[in-house]
């Protein structure tokens, strides 16, 4: 599988950020995040990993494109999910985390994040990953396969912080999906560190204010690990 890896500027690397792109995109589309964060000295020892999803048929789009799982309905307010595809991609996500751990970075120094469909995969990984992570980042994301997630008893990341950034003008993944995600994890999964950041004029994209808030969040997360 294609993946762009940007090594920490200062070795050995002490932390890692893994980012999963949205539907139809590639890992290259999010490398700007590494460029943005590496301007901050706090991220000089951070590895950045940007995987690209396999190209598969997507029912909702009627064609083949890079996708972490099949999608059937727009709006994502549905009970119809490609559970097998999601679980397959969760295993891929698991492998990238394990790769960084094998390189000597502890799980509590690894952040998993994504945009849109990649954010949905990230949110599902909260109940899937067997290790306590540094944090999870959902940018314009939604919760897939809630029924399956409810059946997972894994609560190792119950206290882990989550940053969810979402645009108030998002027509692709409506802001209601962000509110539902927060409610699901706080009310049904007892996660009290789920932070929803709303950007009223932002559409289905990232913005400078969101990136500034994310940079502050990630700095706090890694600083907290150092102080333990």
From TrEMBL:
<dbReference type="GO" id="GO:0052689">
    <property type="term" value="F:carboxylic ester hydrolase activity"/>
</dbReference>
<dbReference type="GO" id="GO:0008474">
    <property type="term" value="F:palmitoyl-(protein) hydrolase activity"/>
</dbReference>
<dbReference type="GO" id="GO:0006631">
    <property type="term" value="P:fatty acid metabolic process"/>
</dbReference>
<dbReference type="InterPro" id="IPR050565">
    <property type="entry name" value="LYPA1-2/EST-like"/>
</dbReference>
<comment type="function">
    <text>Hydrolyzes fatty acids from S-acylated cysteine residues in proteins with a strong preference for palmitoylated G-alpha proteins over other acyl substrates. Mediates the deacylation of G-alpha proteins such as GPA1 in vivo, but has weak or no activity toward palmitoylated Ras proteins. Has weak lysophospholipase activity in vitro; however such activity may not exist in vivo.</text>
</comment>
<protein>
    <recommendedName>
        <fullName>Acyl-protein thioesterase 1</fullName>
        <ecNumber>3.1.2.22</ecNumber>
    </recommendedName>
</protein>
<keyword id="KW-0443">Lipid metabolism</keyword>
<feature type="domain" description="Phospholipase/carboxylesterase/thioesterase">
    <location>
        <begin position="2"/>
        <end position="220"/>
    </location>
</feature>
<dbReference type="InterPro" id="IPR029058">
    <property type="entry name" value="AB_hydrolase_fold"/>
</dbReference>
<dbReference type="InterPro" id="IPR003140">
    <property type="entry name" value="PLipase/COase/thioEstase"/>
</dbReference>
<dbReference type="Pfam" id="PF02230">
    <property type="entry name" value="Abhydrolase_2"/>
</dbReference>
<dbReference type="GO" id="GO:0005737">
    <property type="term" value="C:cytoplasm"/>
</dbReference>
<keyword id="KW-0719">Serine esterase</keyword>
<comment type="similarity">
    <text>Belongs to the AB hydrolase superfamily. AB hydrolase 2 family.</text>
</comment>
<keyword id="KW-0378">Hydrolase</keyword>
<keyword id="KW-0276">Fatty acid metabolism</keyword>
């Amino acid at each position: 599988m294609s993946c762009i890896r940007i090594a920490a500027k200062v070795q050995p690397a002490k932390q890692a950020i893994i980012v999963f792109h949205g539907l139809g995109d590639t890992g290259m589309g999010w490398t700007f995040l590494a460029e943005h964060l590496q301007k901050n000295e706090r991220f000089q020892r951070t590895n950045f990993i940007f995987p690209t999803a396999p190209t598969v048929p997507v029912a909702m789009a009627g064609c083949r494109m890079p996708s972490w799982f099949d999608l059937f309905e727009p709006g994502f307010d549905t009970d119809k999910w490609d559970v097998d595809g999601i679980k397959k991609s969760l295993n891929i996500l698991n492998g990238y985390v394990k790769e960084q751990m094998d390189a000597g970075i502890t799980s509590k120094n690894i952040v998993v994040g994504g945009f849109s469909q990649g954010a949905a995969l990230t949110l599902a990984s909260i109940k899937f990953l067997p290790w306590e992570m540094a944090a999870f980042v959902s940018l314009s994301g939604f919760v897939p396969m809630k029924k399956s997630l409810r059946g997972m008893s894994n609560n190792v990341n119950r206290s882990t912080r989550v940053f969810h950034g979402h645009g108030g003008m998002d027509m692709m993944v409506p802001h209601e999906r962000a509110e539902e995600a927060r409610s699901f994890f706080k009310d049904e999964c007892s996660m009290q560190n789920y932070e929803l950041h709303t950007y009223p004029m932002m559409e289905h994209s990232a913005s400078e204010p969101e990136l500034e808030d994310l940079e502050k969040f990630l700095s706090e997360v890694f600083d907290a690990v150092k102080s333990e």
